[in-house]
Amino acid sequence: MNIEALREQLKVDEGVKYEIYKDHLGYPTFGIGHLITEDDPEHGEPDGTEISEDRVNEVFESDVATFVSESKILFPNLDELPDVAQQVIVNMAFNMGRPRLSKFKNFIAGVNDNDWVRAAEEMMDSRWADQVGARATRLRNLILTLA
Fold this sequence. Notes:
It contains seven helices and three strands, in the order αβββαααααα. It is mainly α.
């Protein structure tokens, strides 16, 4: 998978911040949508605490590895899918997590059948698409390039 292309997508979708901030749900976050956990050295630091570019990159690489692994649970053939499909799936997992993505049964079936039109339609037939708006439209359009 082209991780650099995925990074650029996620920078657009998640933004990139070199300081701690509260996400839309009020959770402490930094970098490219990295939710701070108790295991992070940044845990408990106040909003506005600066984070180095090296740390942002380190955490991003770790987060991507996690979401690639999570995606492979739902798509065991992830590595064999077209690169664009891999990026879209990992982007969606990054955004909503495996538990929510696992509920996209018809999207998963469309991907597994290489029915990219169906997969694209099923992406948009969701509350997620309404919530993320332009992100869903852009990801759907990427999937449609495979049709």
